[in-house]
Structures are given as C-alpha cells and as structure tokens.
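P.,

For your records, the input lines for the assembly:
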Amino acid sequence: MSKKSGEVILSFDNISLSFGGVKALTSIGFDVREHEIRAIIGPNGAGKSSMLNVINGVYHPQQGEIVFRGQKRRGMNTYESAKSGIARTFQNIALFKGMSVLDNIMTGRNLKMRSNFLLDAIYWGPAQREEIAHRKAVEEIIDFLEIQHIRKTPVGRLPYGLQKRVELGRALAAEPSILLLDEPMAGMNVEEKQDMCRFILDVNDQLGTTIVLIEHDMGVVMDISDRVVVLDYGKKIADGTPDEVRSNQNVIDAYLGVAH
Amino acid sequence: MAVAGVSVDAVRLDTFPRLLRQHAQLRGGRPATREKDLGIWQTWSWAEVFTEARALASALAQMGFKRGDNLAIIGDNRPRLYWSFAAAQMLGGVPVPLYQDAVAAEMAFVLQDAEIRFAIVEDQEQVDKMLEIKDQCPALKHIFYDDPRGLTHYGQSELASLDAVMDQGRAEDRLHPAAIDAEIDRGGADEVAVMLYTSGTTGKPKGVCQTHASFISAAKSGCEFDKLGPDDSILSYLPMAWVGDHLFSYAQAIVAGFTINCPESGDTVLTDMREIGPTYYFAPPRVFENVLTTVQIRMEDAGAVKRWLFDYFSGVARRVGAEILDGKGGVSIKDRLLYALGDILIYGPLRNVLGLSRVRVAYTAGAAIGPDLFRFYRSIGVNLKQLYGSTETCAAVCLQPDGEIKFDSVGKPIPGVEVMIAASGEVMVRGGCLLKEYYKRPDSTAEAIDGEGYFHTGDAGFFDEHGHLKIIDRAKDVGKLAGGALFAPNFIENKLKFFSFIKEAVAFGDARERVCAFINIDMGAVGNWAERRNIAYSGYTDLAQKAEVYELIRDCLEKANADLAQDPMLADSQVHRFLVLHKELDPDDDELTRTRKVRRRFVAEKYAVLIDALYSDQPSQYIETLVKFEDGRSGMVAADLRIMSATRYPATKRAA
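Structure tokens returned:
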C-alpha cells in the first residue's frame, strides 16, 4: 500500500482546542500524506470529531499550527476549506431530507457552478452547457456508488445505510482532494459496511483522493487504513501503521480500560 | 418483416453471425441494443453491433482463439457481453454463459469441464472469482473485463480490459476486413452455437450443446407463433446463462431483428421497464408474484377512496377481464362498460406503472404459476401466457395460442415439435430444437435421447381433452404414500407457494403415512402484515417463529387442504403437520439451484432431524444451521422451531 502515498499535504503541530474549561485537544501533532487513507481512532470523547472539525475549519484551535499544501494557517473558515478541496461527511447525516438523491448530490457541485443567476433562470447557452456537465458529473457518482435505483427518491425515505452512501456522494461531487469521513460505517450491518469499505477504497484508488476517516469498527480501520493515529482524552497516544498501533501498549490500555 | 427477410436466402442465413450480418446490411440503422448508462438510454444500431462484434472476434482470433474453443461469459446483462456471444460464434467458437451470482467454487467446475482458455467477465467481482480459481483451472489464460472500476492496480498478466482488446481488434479488422467474413462464411448450421449448463438439481451440472440450427428453429417458431418483428422490443434482465434469456434476448432478437434493452442495474428493472415500455416480456412466475405483492402492499397503504376503487374494479376484472381479453362472447353490455371505465381509472394506469402498457405478448415459465396470479394479469389486460421447455429443448416445446389460455396447462406443441407421453407418464419430445449432446458426456446423452430420437424430459404430464399439455411434476419426484396414493410434492408445494405469505415450501411424504411440510415465509408480505398488526420482530428467524405467523400459515395450509380434498387422487396428500424454517432456503447454501428450484434430497438430508420431529408428536425441535454469507464467510443460525398441525378435510367430489 505504501507505494501510492506521496508527499505530506496536511500537517498539524501542537494543536490545542478547548471549550471553556474543557480541553478537547491537547498538543496534537500528526500529518497526512497525499493519496493515503489516514484513520483517527480512539474511545468515545477522545476528540476525534473535534480534530476533524479543526481540519475543515469549523473549530479554530487556540494554539498550534496547520500547514496545508505548504501554507501555514491557524484555521480557515469552512468556505475556504471547501474551496481548497476539503470535503466531508457527518456523524449524524446532514442531507436535505425532502430532496431527491440526485438533487442532494447536485448541491455538492455548488462550488463548481460558474454561470450567473440570470442565465440559469432562462436556461440558455453556457448555463445549459454547465448544467449538462454537472449532471454528468453527478451521474458518474451515482454510477460509482451504485445508487441508480434511488436516483429520484427523496432522501428522507431511504434506509440509513443508503443515506450514508448519498452523503458520501455529495462530498465526492465537490471533487475534493481530501475527504473527511466522520464514522462512515456507524450503525451499519455487515453487508453495508463491506459495501462502504469497497466504496472508500475505490474512491482512494480510482480518484486518488486522500481520505481521513474516523471509525469505531477496528476490523475496518485495520483493514483499509495506511496509517492510524490514536487519540485518548484529547491527547495523541499512538501514531503509525495498523500493525504498529495494534501492538502499542498505550492503545491497548486505552481500549481495555486500565486506570489512568 | 424480419421473418420474411430470413427466408429470402435461407440457405446462407443459417447461423447467428450470418443473420447478424444480414441485419447490418438490410436495416443497419435500426436499433439493435440499448443500455441505460449514466441515466441516459444509449442505442447501438445493427450495423454498430455487427462492427463491435467483429472487432471483438478479430481480437480473440489474434490472441489464439480457435474454431471449437469455448468462451466463458459471466456477468449481468450488458451489451458487450451479448456481443461476445456473436464474436465467439463468428470464429466458430462456443460461448458458455455462467450464472453471474454463482460462487467461485461452482464456476471452477464449469471452467474445468469446458476447458475454458478465454473468459469475458463484467467487473471486479467476477475478476476476483476468476483469479481465486485460476490455480484450479490452469487452462484459463485470458480474462477480459467490461467495467474497469477497481481493477487499475491488478497486475495479473491474464487480465485485459475489453476496451483495449476491442481497440486492438478494430484496428486489425480494418486492416484485414476479409478475415472475419471468411470465418463467418466457414461456419455451419450444425455446429454448436452455444453451451448452456443445466442447473443440476441432481449431481454436477452438464453442458448442453445446442447448434445454430436448433436455436434458430426454436426462435423462428416462436416469432412466427406470436408474430414478432423488428418493431418489437424486450427488456433483457434475466441471467444470460438461462436458456430463456438466451432464446428471447439473443436467438429471437437476432432472428426477428428486434431491440434488446439492458437495464441500468438489477435494482432499476422496474423503472427501466416503465421507461422502455417493452412490447414483448418474459418473466418467471416469481417476478410476476413480487410485482403483484408490491402492488398489494402499496394499495393497503393507499387512501380509502383509492382502495375502494381498486377493490371494486379488481372485482369487475376478475369477473369479466379474461373473457374480454380472449374476445369471448357472453359478457353483458353493462360489464363491458364497467370494464372500459375500469380500464381508464385502474387497469390502464396500473399497466403503465408496471411498464406493461405496450406489452403484446408476455410469457412466464420455469415454474408453475398460481391461478389467481395468472388471472390477475390477464384480467387487467396483459396477454400473459405460459410456455414449456427446457435447456435441452431451447425452451421451446409448447406455447399457449392466443385465445386458448388455461392456467393449469402449458399449451400446444409448437409447429415442428412432436410431444409424446410415455407409458410411465413421462413427457417425451422430438424435433428440430433438441440438443446435439451433453458436452463430453455420451453416457448422459444416450440416456436422455432414445433410439427413436425422443428426448426424455423427466417431467410427468398428460394431454387434456383440448390437446393441451399439463405438467404435474418431475417424474422422479412423483412418489407414493404408504397408503398407496399418488404423492406429487411439487404440485403440493406450488399450491402452497400460491399464497403470497409463503415463499417456499418443501413437502415430504414419499413412502410415509402422511404429508408434512417445511415452509419459508415471504419476508415482504408477512413483514408488512406483522407491522400492520403491531407485531414487533427483529429479523427473519424471529418473525418466522411468532405464534401469530404460525396461525397465519396454518390458515393458508387449511385452505390448500380443503382444495386438495376436492380431488380424489390428491385428497390423501393434505398436509398434516408443518414448521416454518428458521432461515430462508438459499442457493449459496446449496438448498436451491441457481434457478431457485428446491434441491429436495439435499434439504431432506440437511434437515433430517426436523423431518423426524415432524413425523413424531414433538411440539418443537431445536436446530443449529451453518449459513454462508454472500462474501463466502459463514455463521450459525440457531432456533427452537415450533411444529403445528393443520386441519384435514374428508375427500369430497368437486361438485360439493
């Protein structure tokens, strides 16, 4: 697997984040290489989602430095991060329930849309061409995720596993270079998990997208990740390949509940 | 007229590649194949299909595919896989389609038996299976895949993408265009055109070798019978390895020159069907049943007015619909008006939703169809008919002529086919559509075809007073109860399966005092039924063992028993005791064949402890069963199964 990983494109140094008196993250530092699948794991409340929120600019750390593609920044806002090619999915599905699968994924194209409001309204010339190009991109994602049969179905009527897949689709529609997945497999059955694993690997493989994911299912994490970082109580306790992490004493303690 | 076109130069139009070439010349611009891709229907004309097939043939020839070689074809219904059949046939090779949902180990047998060197497969899933069994099949040297997704980092030397292969073939064909034409001209009508493996309810699958002549004769008879021409179109969604799909989507399509439409994916068939509006439709009873169940479930959730309209006009259709479709007299003006109104309000929109608006002829075969189900479709104006055939007879022995439709017969022998009933009751067939032989199995061939050229179908049946063939059961399954009465398990099981709550049934009784049965409930229908009664359940195993569900199934069985009691021959076959199985019978566990027929002996051995319990007085029996998941892993399912008795009725005459 190591053959595909490239340069470091995103790195964190000494990141600390607190909400009032609660320290969510304390001096975290790790990096993400291009084209790799990087997992963040840890027990509940370890700060995994906070870390993801720091990456795409929802939270701004009080301390520390983020370097993204060679540019230093304390934090960017969510719009900037989306524009610079970071897309994400959420732990609790955040889709437009009343809209069809197709339309939901189309919203992911938002940042790519160029034509102006007036042209769109009369659906003429460049607006029409652009619409067709976007629709094609969306259809390719639908094909990729094998959800043709629910193309026109309102998202609210879909089972959970499929909604997760649609959310992944919407994130992919932005053609991200980094994809952040917050528990993509939570609440899924074995078969749905296998499907999702395959899609994640295919996205990584076919589109070359760098993936940062949070996941609780250890089997899945150890199977598909290139490198794993382990958080516990807002601190980094291990970082390395799945094999290294598996045999790390700190990790075993954190998961088996040795007294701290 | 394509049929007329075929007979213009009958001498030279006796193989599929030649017919294809003829279409490319005569109606090159007409649509031959459609596929929905990225949400849009893509069309290929006959000329394009011919060119693509040639390109593939050129490439295969370059790589050493020779006359007589076998080409494995595995995948869902994709245009390029259909063209692969033609490509292999152009070179005098034999396409061998495999069931795409078979696990690797099952495929290994066929690949070894047919000494496959070349395989054309759909996608990564199939490629993985091929690579898994490569070591067991040393002959396998070339694997071409249609869909490159997920395969970019596969380095195996056997692999190549169909795109690249065909590009190479196109260049070669342009350079030496005469080469393929010469190969097409060399082919003979009596050469093997396709090899279809039988599903193998008993023993290992056998390769059935069918010649160009036999499939063309079967296709021609069918097309003439139902007046199929180049303007017809069909949705191709059934497994390509099944004789029915090969007859309808390949042989008949090429003979009559009609259009085949490949759905976007297996899950989109209903939507695609509505968009295409095929004029010719084929489905096994199970598909018709699923569709009707869906309609019923949705009607139960509909508003009161809609439900009333549906119920009222369903009643009208039940009463007179089939007669009106058959053009029979004796229907009152009032009923005709009511039916016309129903057609506007209910039947028409319903046909439209189901994609059946333009269907002129619909066929069902492969298993018995329930009388209610059959009548329902006919009563809403769908010309649904039955046919009888098998892999060995190109699926073409008997068809029901328009206007002579009966739910319990399979119709009259088609022109050119002789049907005879042996003294034992077995149906025997002679005619142009028979198989040439079983591949490398002269013993089986000799067993199946007797000295006079009759093929022994293995089905027990008889002709009724109108000359229609009636099939009772597989001849070898027909047994006797200990009391001496006839025991036809399939017949009983079919009667049970006609209830929408029962998905599968297995009846036991040969050489025993009485009949007992295993039942599989239909998850969709029973699940919906349970939800509306606020019965909570966690999954199949849980739902199956609910006391309420047992009551429900017992009601069904008692209705069936009452029905059986009316037939003096079958009155003793009433079901005494039954149980609902804790898992669904599944081809992955070898309990069903890939065509979803019960492997009777295997099931009896596997669940012997349950059968013993049925024939004792135990109220329940504990069982643990190993199940295989789709990915090849396995797990255990355990349950304490209840056993329940059903009321039997005294034998009565039908007059009662």
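Two observations worth noting. Chain A has a mean pLDDT of 87. Residues 8 and 33 of chain A are 4 Å apart (CA to CA).

Regards
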